[in-house]
Design a protein that fits this description.
The protein contains five helices and no strands. By secondary structure, the chain is an all-alpha fold. The chain binds magnesium ion (MG). Magnesium ion binds next to helix 1 and helix 2.
Amino acid sequence: MLNKKITELLNSQINKEFYSSFLYLDMSNYYYDSSLNGFGNWFAIQTQEEYAHAMLFLQYLQNNGEKVILEAIDKPDKVYANFKDPLVAAFEHELFVSKSINEIYAAAYDLKDFKTMQFLDWFVKEQGEEEKNVDELIKRFELFGTDVRGLYMLDNELASRTFTAPSLVL
Ligand code: MG
């Protein structure tokens, strides 16, 4: 069994990860609608990753005998004015998720819940990578994305991204 506050925070994180998955699917659709299928693919992979994150939090609660409470997922309602907009929004969203995971970590630390801290270690590292990946994509878009040929080549490159399931063992 876990502490009540930790259980609530982890349940809330499941919803945030599912929302992330949903948000990135909306971004993926935006790029597919704009015939940038490589960017569409890149965000479709993000969608799969976020779904996998949600399932890891869910399984952690279940493995510890806690009830999983699924809440409604908010509708992604952002309107994008240009191809850079979703990238910036994705970066800001990852900062929000990192803050949320850090808050759970801080609560686990205060309660000396070492098991949850160890579980969250993978996510702390993963968030660092997510932030770096999106930040790099923004920088590369700024360098190459404003030229149609550069955008075409960048889009082709992003089309090759494939999904790898997280290797985290619970
Ligand atoms: Mg995530």
